[in-house]
Recover the amino acids of this structure.
């Protein structure tokens, strides 16, 4: 599909191809495709104020439609512009709306007392656990490093994720030997 191909091109750093594919996918008006297009455009044209303004408008529209991932991306733009108050507000809203990445990042800020947020380790851990329960690997790693994982389910998810990660690393190493 255009959507998956666009994500793959983005991960490979081929922004032009990612934009082309995301644009084709966004013609269907699916929020995920429009969000991906905005992200691809930002990755490529982040230094062009006119394009960045258009991207912000597109993300704002998606946020108004209830897209928590678009809100997370918009929060990251606020963070890059050193608009900490807006960043924290939108990050928390995105976390409350169910975005696993936001739950993890906001939880970290709470846990460590960053970005002007009063430190609250318990609340931070709750957000991070929510992200981990959705299978978000960085959240699982965080809990393993900084907290005690008491849930057998989360322990199993972490173990499975680590095994998958190690298998992918071994696969990459084997491929590199033949290149």
């Amino acid at each position: 599909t255009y959507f998956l191909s666009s994500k793959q091109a983005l991960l490979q750093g081929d922004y032009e191809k990612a934009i082309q594919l995301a644009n084709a996918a966004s013609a269907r008006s699916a929020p995920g495709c429009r969000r991906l297009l905005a992200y691809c455009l930002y990755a490529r044209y982040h230094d062009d104020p006119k394009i960045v303004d258009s991207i912000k408008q597109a993300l704002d529209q998606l946020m108004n439609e209830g897209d928590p991932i678009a809100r997370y991306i918009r929060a990251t733009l606020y963070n890059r512009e050193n608009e900490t108050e807006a960043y924290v507000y939108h990050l928390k809203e995105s976390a409350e709306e169910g975005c696993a990445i936001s739950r993890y990042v906001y939880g970290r800020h709470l846990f460590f007392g960053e970005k002007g947020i009063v430190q609250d380790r318990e609340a931070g851990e709750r957000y991070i656990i929510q992200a981990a329960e959705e299978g978000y690997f960085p959240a699982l790693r965080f809990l393993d490093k900084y907290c005690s994982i008491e849930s057998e389910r989360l322990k199993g998810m972490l173990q499975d994720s680590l095994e998958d990660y190690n298998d992918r690393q071994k696969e990459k190493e084997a491929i590199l030997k033949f290149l």
Q: What stands out?
A: The two ends are 28 Å apart (CA to CA). Residues 132 and 139 are 5 Å apart (CA to CA). Residues 152-178 form the longest helix (27 residues).
